[in-house]
């Protein structure tokens, strides 16, 4: 199965800029399907970015995040060629992890 995470990380001197797009339904549990039945809640609970063994971004999410979330942030302390590990876990126990090289 292909990863549900697309990421780009670029280093410019001391600053690394990260952009990530995560494919996930992010269902709130409050929306009804065409038959009028509630679609069960299904959302990412934790999103984590690690570089050189250290967390550089951690988000604890709930139902207020939209479908296929996009995340953009910058951090210091990485260089070109370093690995950036991205992982998420959702409320149903599903998870995904991918690694991107910083360019």
Automatic annotation (TrEMBL):
Taxonomy, superkingdom: Bacteria
Sulphur oxidation protein SoxZ domain boundaries: 6-100
TM stretches of this protein: none
InterPro entries, alphabetized: Ig-like_fold, Ig_E-set, SoxZ, SoxZ_dom
Name the record gives this protein: Sulfur-oxidizing protein SoxZ
Species, as recorded: Bradyrhizobium ottawaense
